[in-house]
Amino acid sequence: MKATVTAMLTSQNQGYAIALQSHDVSIVGLGFVGLSTAVSFAKLGMKVAGIDIDNNKVSMISKGFAPFHEPGIKELLEATRKQFKVSTNMQLVRNSPLIFITVGTPSKEDGSIDIRFLIAASKAIGSAIRGSNYPLIVVKSTVTPGTLMNVVVPEIERASGMSYGKDFGACSNPEFLREGRAIQDTLHPDRLIIGGSEKDANLLKSFYEKLYGKGMPRTIIASTYNAELIKYANNSFLAMKISFMNQIACICEKLPGGDVQVIAEGIGLDERIGKLFLGAGSGFGGSCFPKDIKALMHFSKRLGYSPPIVEATMKVNEDQPLRVVKMAEEKLGSLEGKKIAVLGLAFKPHTDDMREAVSVKIVEELLRKRANVSAHDPKALKNASLVFGDKIELVGDLNKCLKSADCAILVTEWDEYSKLEPDYFRSLMRKPIVIDGRRLFDPRRFSEQLEFAAIGLGNSVSPGIVRAK
Ligand code: UGA
Fold first, then answer.
1. Cα dihedral 344/409/277/188 (nearest 10)
2. Which of 231, 41, 239, 79 minimizes the C-alpha distance to 148?
3. Cys-Cys link to 11, which of 67, 96, 202, 464 (CB 3.0-4.6 A)?
4. pLDDT (average), residues 364-386
């Protein structure tokens, strides 16, 4: 679809309209969500202005480089050069009828979210939109219920001298992008959640109808509080599925021939459960699940309720990464002075993101046990060096990582590791012991050919195991 400077988006129900102008949309905050959204909207034909306070980031993006690794983003930056302008100057938002806020909301010590960047962005947007004609401010950042109405809207009213509902509109519109698939998720979202007054929600919905055309996904229009809570419920539910399976994994490990992957296949066929996010492993990490669960716990405690399942989801996840270290100890005895090869450091494949990566907990525990750690990752070595410094050996060459190792621990399930054969480990390692923290390797072949342990795998693998078809 192609938007033009004269395109009109007319809300079917209300007859309100947004005239798309020189910049159809502005995106404030060019982190992972903001930049992925910006280039995807530009790809779909919108003229996009991206604003960030970070000079370096803006200069990098304007030269066509993304500040992080994300499949497809570099190509889209190249393809959308004419459609997508970046700047540190907030005045650029003046030209946009739609202003998306995508700034980060990191965790504070107590688990609550730090809304400093959101407040600063709201103030700056407020000053920039003074006198403009009913701009719609859309918060995509993950924020606890009430933040749009109680923080963002009052800040904008103060800075702009304008009145919410009369001079400008505001919506909550949480995003569900996954790192590593952010572009696909933005180009083809499975749903849209829009929170706001009827007038504002319909304005935003009509923008998306124009953007996605026939690909318009199912849309839920809700109150701003419910829209904000949907995001937290969504991430906590997915994380709960993972922690639940990690508990079943612990049971499987005590069961002769037990195999959590077979259990996942079995229960995943029940449509009420679904087959996704049943992957047991070393636990969940990343910039979203841990942060959002902590924020939900903190937020609900403030309301006078402690959600036990949400708390347990986090508790299971805290212990889970250490299980692979325990497995290594069971095989090797003391880890002191032993060379442990860690395969994968990013919090998941297809990203270089190390935020809350379980690899950090695993490596720290290995170092506490005085092991010598050599680690490999196809993309995250640069970010890993900021985390580990020279405490461990970081290598881009997998042979070097495994050479003379006493044990290898698979932490991130990169595609290239899935092709590794038992022979390969045997040819390089001093002791061919492999611990699979992500259930990537075939347990039968690996158990037959070397010393093998895996999350959710009972100990008498060879004779007992029958894989699901
Ligand atoms: C997550 C959600 O999936 C997105 O919908 C959401 O928009 C995003 O958070 C966000 O709030 O911004 P993301 O953090 O990119 O996306 O990563 P996921 O693919 O959800 O994986 C999160 C963690 O769970 C990873 O560490 C992954 O290894 C782990 N995981 C995932 C498992 O341990 N088992 C599984 O079966 C699936």
1. 20
2. 231
3. 202
4. 98
Check residue 461 and give its pLDDT.
Answer: 53
How wide is the angle at C-alpha 239 spanned by C-alphas 238 and 245, nearest 5°? 95
The residues carrying an active-site annotation are 288
What are the tokens at 47?
Answer: 């003229």
Q: How many CA atoms lie within 13 A of 396 on its CB side?
A: 6
pLDDT digits (tens, 9 = 90+) for 131-162: 999 999 999 999 999 999 999 999 999 999 99
Tens digits of per-residue pLDDT, 69-111?
A: 899 999 999 999 999 999 999 999 997 999 999 999 999 999 9
Which residues contact residue 308 at a Cβ distance below 8 angstroms, ignoring those fewer than 6 apart?
none
Residues of the chain with pLDDT > 90, as a percent, come to 92
Q: What is the pTM of this model?
A: 0.93
Strands 17-19 and 339-343, by their bridges, are: unpaired
Is residue 173 within 8 Å of 140, Cβ to Cβ? Answer: yes
What pLDDT is stored for residue 337 in this prediction? Answer: 98
In whole angstroms, give the CA distance from residue 54 to residue 72: 23
Contacts of 361 (CB under 8 A, 6+ apart): 321, 322
pLDDT in tens, 411-431: 999 999 999 999 999 999 998
CA 409 to chain CA centroid, nearest Å: 23
Q: What is the DSSP pairing of strand 8-10 with strand 17-19?
A: antiparallel
- From the CA of 289, how far away is ligand 1's center (Å)? 7
For 270, residues 6+ apart whose C-beta sits below 8 A from its C-beta are none
Residues with CB under 6 A from ligand 1: 142, 175-179, 235, 238, 242, 277-279, 281, 284-286, 288-289, 347-348
**What is the number of the ligand 1 atom nearest to the C-alpha of 281?**
33
- Residue 207 has, within 13 A of its CA and on its CB side, a CA count of 26
